[in-house]
């Protein structure tokens, strides 16, 4: 409704002798635009969800990928909680070091250091695990 009033205010016909029909038209057009936008967003989200399901299904059928995922999860469990937290926020959360630092109450340099240490520890643990096969 508010967007309809904004549309009316921007309309050159807002000062017409009878602005009520212009208001009805503005609200109607705004509602139609909103419905179309919502439908497009829903369609995009549905398409992305379906593509994600296809990707997950392909990944789950690959036994080697499952094994590798378990190795990575086990290696991550061995990380100190501070490093694991930063690693998850950086990789899966796609946050910057500045955002991570602000979120955790640490400097961005500390966040970057914890990330580097976590990656180094993961590399070592995964290379050790691969050597035991």
Describe this structure in words.
By secondary structure, the chain is an all-alpha fold. It folds into two domains: 54 residues, no CATH class; 69 residues, Arc Repressor Mutant, subunit A (Orthogonal Bundle), CATH 1.10.10.10. 81% of the residues lie in helices and 0% in strands. The protein is built from six helices and no strands. It is elongated and about 85 Å long.
CA-atom Rg in angstroms: 26 Å
CATH architecture descriptor of the largest domain: Orthogonal Bundle
User: How many DSSP helices?
Assistant: 6
According to CATH, what is the topology of the largest domain?
Arc Repressor Mutant, subunit A
Give the beta-strand count: 0
Strand content of the residues, in percent? under 5%
Q: Low-confidence parts lasting 5 or more residues at pLDDT below 50?
A: none
Helix content: over 70%
Q: Which SSEs are present, and which pair or pack?
A:
Elements: H1 2-10, H2 20-60, H3 63-77, H4 81-91, H5 97-104, H6 108-131
Helix pairs in contact: 1-2, 3-6, 4-6, 5-6
